[in-house]
Design goal:
With about 270 residues, the protein is α/β, with parallel strands linked by helices. The chain is about 35% helix and about 15% strand. It is built from seven helices and seven strands. The chain has helices spanning about 25-30, 45-50, 55, 110-140, 175-190, 205-210, 240-265, and strands at about 5-10, 15-20, 60-65, 140-150, 165-170, 195, 215-225. Helix 5 (about 175-190) packs antiparallel against helix 7 (about 240-265). It is globular. The structure holds zinc ion. Zinc ion binds next to loops.
């Protein structure tokens, strides 16, 4: 297996996770994908680039190198469905639009997939767990920002058009409610963007599993509508001008989560 993740250790109690940013495929997955999937349409495109300022802020950052078409790092290893309606699993069988992801008879074998779990999924989660533990030991608390993006129209997954900023705290279970309120306040301050808290996207496995406010780990997921910084159609080009404005909001959100931590824990 090639490099499965990139990790940067920062200087503040904030870890940013990018589980769907990866573009690599294994030979078995690459060979099996239907033509429509070859361009990796369901990727959280350009997330590392969009958040590249966060390194200077002092955040730790972990990003996937492999595509979610190989294994979805934001799903539990037992593959229990995250949402009641249509969703995709640990080893996606369909595209977001509902069509099969693999050509008939070309789905990677169970043995092949077991190696993805051990060699891709597990190192990512080991990194998350170890870094959150390190932060909590050093600062007394840890903040986790799970960074995602998605096309704003996917009829198979949700009705209508997605708001620009979709904050998820697993209905309040993954972080202090005061923190969620502050983040919503930031979004309200940027009136030309729409936002929602715990709408269609309430936080995936990472937010739900690691968010543990009673033990001073506060996790928030942001599902960002891709139209706020890129072209939503192939070849999924980054739009520098759009991104500049969106990055201002992202910066303010990350500054706010850190300011809240400082205020709440005094360090
Ligand atoms: Zn995602």
């Amino acid at each position: 297996m090639d490099k499965v993740l990139s990790f940067h250790q920062g200087s503040l109690p904030l870890l940013i996770s990018m589980p769907h940013a990866g573009l690599r495929l294994t030979p078995a997955v690459k060979g099996g994908l239907v033509a429509q999937a070859q361009g990796l349409p369901d990727t959280d495109w350009h997330i590392p680039r969009l958040y590249d300022f966060a390194r200077e802020l002092g955040a730790s950052i972990v990003a996937a190198e492999y595509s979610r078409f190989v294994i979805d790092l934001n799903r539990p290893e037992d593959d229990k469905p995250l949402y009641a309606g249509a969703t995709t699993g640990l080893y996606p069988a369909t595209l977001f639009e509902g069509e099969p992801l693999f050509k008939e008879g070309q789905v990677p074998s169970a043995a092949e997939r077991a190696t993805y779990l051990e060699q891709i999924w597990r190192p990512y989660h080991d990194t998350l767990r170890n870094e959150l533990q390190r932060l909590r030991e050093q600062f007394g608390y840890a903040l986790l920002w799970d960074a995602h993006s998605i096309r704003s129209h996917i009829p198979h997954l949700f009705d209508g058009t997605l708001p620009d900023f979709n904050l998820g705290t697993f209905n309040g279970a993954s972080c202090d409610p005061q923190l969620a309120e502050r983040l919503q306040g930031v979004c309200t301050g940027f009136a030309h963007y729409s936002h929602v808290l715990n709408g269609r996207f309430k936080g995936g496995h990472i937010t739900r599993h690691y968010g543990d406010p009673a033990n001073n780990i506060h996790a928030v997921q942001l599902e960002l509508a891709q139209r706020t910084y890129m072209e939503e159609r192939e070849p999924f080009a980054y739009d520098e001008q759009l991104a500049q404005n969106t990055r201002q909001v992202l910066r303010k959100l990350l500054e706010t989560i850190m300011a809240w931590g400082l205020e709440r824990y005094g360090r």
